[in-house]
Amino acid sequence: DGSLTYPNARIHAPADELAFWLDDARMNAAPENGRAGFVNARRVFNPILNAVTRFVGERELVPGITSIPTKGHSPGHHSFVVSSGSAKILIQGDVTGMPTFFVRNPGWHSLFDMDAAMAEATRRRLYDMLAAERMPVIGYHFPFPAVGHVAKDGTGYRLELVHWRSAG
Fold this sequence. Notes:
By secondary structure, the chain is α+β, with helices and mostly antiparallel strands. It is built from five helices and nine strands. The strands form two sheets. Strands 3-4-5-6-7-8-9 form a seven-stranded mixed β-sheet. A two-stranded parallel sheet has the order 1-2. Strand 8 and strand 9 form a beta hairpin. The protein is globular and about 45 Å long. The chain starts with 10 loop residues before the first strand and ends in a 7-residue tail after the last strand.
């Protein structure tokens, strides 16, 4: 019915990401087959735009959730570190589409990355950090169970998925 499912939820979005997707000139200049992202962003954000808290850069949004700029896939792309005590996990968005290719070969470029050079630099910076800290990572496009660790492997990295155990 168009009403908010969680009307009291706090909504945060990267200011530069919102500015990009809500820019009329950019949408009108995009090829016809490239406008879906603009249309979807507007469908989601326009009804709630006044309730959105925009943020810039790395910062703690709420206790235990910190934004990490991971630009390249899109102009304002961010990932998030979720922490509790000394435990941390990184929730990456589209830093890596298919980990089989882009974790192992961070210098390869996807046509979905809007700035290929920045996307590569972001992958290397992020995966160096994850490998050094042995911080677990959840990836949107990772195979089940979609959580693991990144390890250095030659000039690239290796994704070591966690072992799945049924609760039953």
